[in-house]
Specification:
84 residues; Arc Repressor Mutant, subunit A; 2 strands; 6% strand; binds FE2/S2 (inorganic) cluster
Length: 84
């Protein structure tokens, strides 16, 4: 299913980026970077964040020492949009 129409990214693309990137993406902005694109309208940010959380499972709230995901970063979605 396409989750980002601006960049034509599927849920599979996002899961693949989360599971296979050298540096684990923890927010939508980082997923875009892993997939070689950038945010356009931002409407997909929440959906991408949800897919990231599902893919990380219990690691989303922080990993134990030694976990491959324990390099992380902030929990924000990586977007800062000005109010219209
Ligand atoms: S739908 Fe993803 S940036 Fe527009």
């Amino acid at each position: 299913m396409i989750v980002c129409s601006c960049n034509v990214l599927s849920d599979h693309d996002v899961r693949h980026a989360v599971n296979n990137a050298d540096e684990l993406p923890r927010n939508a902005k980082q997923v875009y970077g892993c997939l070689g694109c950038s945010a356009e309208c931002g409407r997909c940010a929440r959906t991408i964040t949800t897919i990231i959380e599902q893919a990380l499972g219990p690691c989303v709230d922080g990993c134990l020492a030694g976990c491959q995901h324990n390099q992380a970063v902030s929990q924000d979605d990586g977007f800062a949009f000005a109010a219209a």
